[in-house]
Amino acid sequence: MRGDETRIAERVRPLAGRSHECAVLARGLAKARSGRAQCVVVRGASGTGKTRLLTEIRQYDWAGSFTVLRVTCAEVPPSRYGAVRALFHPLDLAADAGSAVRAGAATRALPVLRPDLPHSPDDESPGDQATLHGLYRAAANLMSTAPLVIVVDDAHRCDEDSLRWLDFLLRRAEDLPLLLLLACRGDELEDPAQTVVSDIVAQRASTVLELTPLVQADVGEVVAEAFDEPPHSRFVATCARVSGGNPLLLDRLLSELSRAGVSPDAEGAAAVEDVGRDVVADSVLSRLSGQPDRVRGVAAAAAVLGPGAGAESLAALAGVTRWQVAEALGVLREHNILAASGADFVHDVVRTAVLEATRVSESERLRAARILNDAGRPAVEVANHLLALSELNQTWMAGVLHDAAVLEERRGDPEAAVRYLRRVLDVETSEPQRIRIRADLGRVLAQIDPYAALPILRELLNQVTDPDVHVSLVLNFATTAATAQRHPEAVRVLGEVLAMLSAGRDASPADHELCLAVESMLLIIGAGEKSTFGIVRARVRERAIPEGSTSAERRTLAAIAYVEALRGAPSGRVVEHARTALGFQANDADVWTERAALFALHLADEADDLLPAAQRSVEKVKNMGARWDYSYSLSCYARVLLHFGDVREAAAEARTAAELCEGTSGADSTAAQFTAWASALIEQGRIEQAERLLDRIDRAWFEESILEWHYFLHAKARARYLRGDETAAVQLLLRCGDSMNDAGVGNPIFAPWRVDAARLLAGLGRRSEAVDLIEAGDEAVQRWGTARAIGRQLMARGAVADDPSQAVASLTDAVEVLSGSPAWLEEARAHHCLGAALLRTEDVRSARKHLRRAIDLATLCGSRPIAENARALAVTAGGRVGQPLRSPVDLLTGSERRVATMAASGTSNREIAEALFVTLRTVETHLTSAYRKLRVSRRADLAIAIGGARTD
């Protein structure tokens, strides 16, 4: 690879002043050519030469051996996946030549890439996850013919969805020939773009090039190239000092010097001082200086009003007529001050120079705000001028600022909404309105800083007298308190208002719905801490089950399912409540309803309902713009993926969740994001990294948490076990069990401490303790009744059995039970344990069979510890281990594969049965099994899934 890099570098002339940066590009291309994905993020302030550096990539591809897709985001209208469409546009996906790119799963991205093309009904409006995977496959298809270079300039203006896809692509392209180049202004990145770019930068394949000012030697290269003669050292030193090493300022300075006929010698150094003082400002103002006052006035008005200002607005602020505005705009464009169309400047540096020269006063800001408001410009544009005023004293300002806050909240920018709402309070004098604004402020602030929101909401609780408004405020306060880990306070306040509602109002349908809304939140929030879990358990036991015909009834059902799932009630009953709560035909489920119901489905292994619903829930929260909520929902989704054996995806999503959380003010109010990431890392065999992550968690409230404390203890115990410290692992598991028993949490699958501790105790020779633990858990396992619970119990019985044949019998039963469930990791463990037990009975042939199956399943899931341990045993057993599976298709039996292939081609079940001479029931059984193994939920996805079959 070093030779390839050298050959690339030798064929081109590096950009003057940026030889180091060009070398980084050369290394990136060489690594990409060798099949190691790379990302270079070029970051710098305006004028540092980001765009010019990125154009150098064309020189390095001297043989045209790369496919280069390029977009400048400033030229792309802002829309979902707008930058991605612009990247793929030159490929002409409608033509036959584009068929290779859109083959296979890439078809799922066509509605995004080419909305003008006809699509099959199955491809209409694909979900975000399907779109991301489809775009990934389209890029992978391109890379199958040539290395791919993706260049995104002005990435700070890129739409969020395109940035998220680039992050998604890079995470999954480690062994693909890809080079991703991003150029952005670090000072202009705001959430969510800042978040996604941070995710990209955090990846191992990423290199950040901070374009710092040019040093004097680099300035000398640029000067020599500009004048075509060797410059004097004093001339170079003066240019470096005056320009500050900024490439744009330097280019403007050298252009002015050349136009003035200055030579790059010692005498010319004096001219550099004269021409170069405040280079850009002087350059701009010198071009304006010979213009009439009306032209300079229009330039100043354009700088103040910003892009998008109409001719009437410019005329009003500049104090000129509309035809004078048109004339002035033409002059400013001719002098390269304004862009070719509209009233935007050619560069932000130019606008800044005009603003600094204009020195906008508060009265002019106020005039600008009035003009924009009268012109009907968006409230945000008007409000930004109001924010710059030291005093707000006119009643119309409150309405503008509030409208801007509402708009920014809808756009998913709660931080901006909070800024506007705070200033509304500076101008609003009506006490009822102030209470309403403060309630809005507390609600929006809770999305980004629950600790700051709590005092605002707590104070309002004592000021609001209207019962309906008070209840709404109580619900906001309770959810905020729960986010800030103040569960007991939330439960107390909810209990008080529930008692008031129950005692003081008629039982009308509206009142009944209101009571259920409060009670359901009490149940969900109260189930979050050990100190309040007993209260909600008692409430659930005493109350009737609602039908689920209203949104409040569905949330109550979700709460009941959540509490009952933790308690370990029969899973069938829990699933029924959870499915009704989600109301798969309804769209009114809030975040709390979805989290509670999805958690219950998660423990019950209802994969078909759970996975698509969990994806939709994550997307919904992401679109709300609440960064902490999004990171938490993403960690829940990662845990679902891990539960069903998708270790790689779980690790990627959990890492994103943790990195998102670290940048929020609510980072100290949760550990879920970090324990989820650590759990996935443990399954990947990255034990040291996982333990470092777990050791960082230090929360005062931690041990009171129902979910996070027990997930933490279980993850730490597994890490200790894989380290070889079985004694410490057992102690952690028993501590977990004591804590769960004290709280009344009895689900055998949630943080399954009992069977894990029993297996470890048996290995330590403490067999009687292990047997006692297993027998004590029998009732809970049978009551919950899922295949995972029963299979794990059978595995534990096999581990503690004295008789080898009895151990083999129990483990054989475990394999059989788990093979019909979505618990792939558990099935892999069962095959591994059975293989080890068969070796002890000297049934080597059967042992190898199960160990190979364990290797295959663990490899597909991405679990290194299971795969490596099984492989070591298989080698001990003798014989060839064989090639691990590369696709879930390889899990299909011959009959399942024949049926799935025919179904994918459009053949009906009855036609398949007749063609294969089997019963219709047999076809349905094979298809159901194929769906589970391929992790698809509909017939239309079979063709894509089967396309990943192994061909060797």
Rounded to an integer, what's the Rg over CA atoms? 32 Å
Structural class: mainly alpha
The H-level CATH homologous superfamily of the largest domain, spelled out, is: Tetratricopeptide repeat domain
Runs with pLDDT <50, length 5+?
1-13, 121-126, 948-952
Query: What's the mean pLDDT score?
Result: 83
How many domains would you count in the coordinates? 5
* SS strand fraction: under 5%
At the first level of CATH, the class of the largest domain is: Mainly Alpha
Q: Count every helix, treating DSSP H or I runs of 4 or more residues as helices.
A: 49
Walkthrough of the structure:
With 952 residues, the chain is mainly alpha-helical. The chain is 65% helix and 3% strand. The protein contains 49 helices and 5 strands. Helix 8 (160-171) links the parallel strand 3 and strand 4. Residues 1-13, 121-126 and 948-952 have low confidence and may be disordered.
